[in-house]
Write a structure and sequence with these properties.
With about 230 residues, the protein is mainly α. The protein has nine helices and two strands, in the order αββαααααααα. The protein has a two-stranded antiparallel sheet.
């Protein structure tokens, strides 16, 4: 369930209080509550690696900031909460030692190539290239894509090392949001853009039509920039 910030603060305080000189601090914990009886129970994970986007079944990747923590964060965690050697799991020992974290040939260059790539129109929307209004949208998509790719986020941090589908989804989502607020929430602009689409569904569906077209532009750009 979603929790408020105050609860999260208390949760983090609990973790700090429970930190042990030998075992370090637990990596994740669960609180199970029985609504009928009001009873509750805690369970703690001291050894298994945590992927935040796997903690909640069927969670939409756009609702989280990727699979966190990233590799380097675990070294910081071990420094903050040291463990005796027998309590350091093999996967954490490997990360701290650098095993499996060395960049592979070509890693780090993909995002730079994506930034340098010239944007193109998706074939299905190529007819809009002659429209002044839609050309403005196209330019705005390119600008938002550059902003999203240059931003300091977990998604772009991961893309500097490897092209990851979840990271691409996050970048696309961060670019799409501002575009929809700019062009779809403005009723007059949205109606004018919808009127130029090949198969508009009428004024009542203008928002859907424009949203679909903008999403196509964003998805095409992210795919072409990363050769997907």
């Amino acid at each position: 369930m979603r929790v408020r910030g105050q609860f999260q603060d208390l949760w983090e305080q609990l973790r700090e209080v429970m930190a042990d000189p030998e075992r370090g601090a637990w990596f994740s914990a669960s609180l199970d509550v029985d609504r009928a009886s009001g009873s509750s129970s805690f369970s703690y994970n001291w050894d298994g690696r945590v992927w935040f986007d796997r903690l909640i079944p069927d969670l939409d990747p756009s609702d989280v900031d990727l699979a966190l923590p990233l590799d380097e964060a675990w070294g910081e965690e071990l420094a903050r909460h040291p463990r005796s050697p027998e309590h350091v799991p093999a996967w954490l020992r490997a990360l701290v030692a650098g095993e499996g974290t060395e960049p592979q040939p070509g890693d780090g260059a993909a995002i730079e190539r994506a930034i340098a790539a010239a944007p193109t129109w998706p074939p299905a929307r190529a007819s809009l290239a002659s429209s002044t209004r839609w050309s403005e949208v196209f330019d705005a998509v390119s600008e938002e894509m550059m902003r999203a790719l240059r931003a300091d986020t977990p998604a772009t941090e991961l893309l500097h090392r490897e092209v990851d589908d979840r990271a691409l989804e996050q970048v696309a989502a961060s670019a799409t949001g501002p575009l929809l607020r700019r062009f779809v929430h403005d009723t007059a602009s949205c109606a004018a853009l919808a009127a130029e689409l090949d198969t508009p569904n009428g004024p009542d569906r203008a928002e859907d039509d424009v949203t679909d077209a903008i999403t196509d532009l964003v998805d095409w750009q992210i795919a072409r920039r990363f050769d997907q």
